Amino acid sequence: MRISSKKRVIGIALLTAVAVMGDAMLFIVLPLYWEDFGLTALWQIGVLLSVNRFVRLPLNPLVGLFYKHFQVRTGVFIAVGLACLTTMSYGILQDFWLLLLVRALWGVAWSLLRLGGYLTVIEAADDSNRGRFVGLYNGLWGIGGLIGMLAGGILVDYTSVSFVTVLFALFALVAFPLVWLLVPVKAPEKKEQQQSQQYTSWFTSRVALVLLTSLGMGFIVFGLFASTLSPLIERSYKADWTGAQITIGAATLAGVIQAVRWGWDPFVAPWIGKCLDRSTSKIRLLLIPLFSGSILLFLLGYIQSLFLLFLLLLVFQFTSTFFVTTTDTFATEVASQSNRVKVITAHTIAVDLGAALGPLVAFYLLEFYSISIVYFLAASFLMLLGFMWLYQLCRNAQKDVTLHRETRVK
Questions:
Q1: Which element (helix H / strand E) includes 56?
Q2: pLDDT tens, 249-270?
Q3: Major facilitator superfamily (MFS) profile domain location, by residue (predicted)?
Q4: Topology (CATH) of 5-183+201-400
Q5: Rounded distance, CA 31 to CA 243, Å?
Q6: How far apart are CA 315 and CA 257, in angstroms?
Q7: Are 115 and 63 in contact (CB under 8 A)?
Q8: SS3 state at 90
Q9: Which of 128, 80, 175, 176 is nearest to 329 (CA)?
């Protein structure tokens, strides 16, 4: 049975959503309930939230090689199985070193899922719909983050960590046979061999800047912000809210804030992708999340009012969706014009490196400085990245003017 390009993207995205639920829950729950996991120090939180990403750094090239010889379906089968195993282990194991091993196994699963998803999008998309397909893919797998962060944060406040992890593991177990239906077998292609011969050098200055942006996106969105959201809210939220005999803790509030983004991503991300497809200057659109995100991070670090904090967090979540969709679109675009496996593998490595450094750097700094300083440094980094792209935009404009003048002279 032949599956359309759009349905292929939807299939891999939904399976990724189920697999990522346990990991998403951990980012909300672990910073607040770390003693329930058997941890003894704050730095262990950063290590557990980061180790899966560090594991993926050497793994991503191997996964790229894996997908040159095996079907995406095979990789997804392995990934969903590992997701079920690791999610259940979070609530059973009470030892830091065992949890470290489990988080490393999750890194293997995510490498298989993420690279398989990117390759599916690159294969299915063209210049007219690339942004829309990237947005669709990111938006749909984000549903898993929505359930993991929102339901995970709420349920842990009322039940236990072990109950939630077993529940999410059962979801992954049920999804395992669906891989056969949702991920089709793709016929071998000769196009990849032709690309390898045609493109002798894939690492250009344009690719380098895109990869630096991938690093920044992973560091800010998936690393630093995701891992410090609970402590950020807890700073302004000194006590639980109680109303109608329902207690709302900081974990629940953090889950709601993160879940808002995952909730609107299936609608907002494809819309942003369409805007990118129609735009004549994608760099101008990229500057929006870079500069606005920098300003928002600075404000988030110093705002004490709970109401203003929630308002700015919602705006920043929209900016994050914009940032992720734009960066992934840039990456898939340059990959489609060069050696796609090498470029998209480098992109995943850059995102993973940033996402791994985010929690590690954040919680290390929190041992010595306030969360305001951490967010100020993050804002400065994002601002610097924005100026680099602004310089690139000016260079492109200057080249266009020079080319136009030469054409007129001729």
A1: helix 42-69
A2: 666 777 778 778 878 888 899 9
A3: 8-398
A4: Growth Hormone; Chain: A; (1.20.1250)
A5: 25
A6: 11
A7: yes
A8: helix
A9: 128
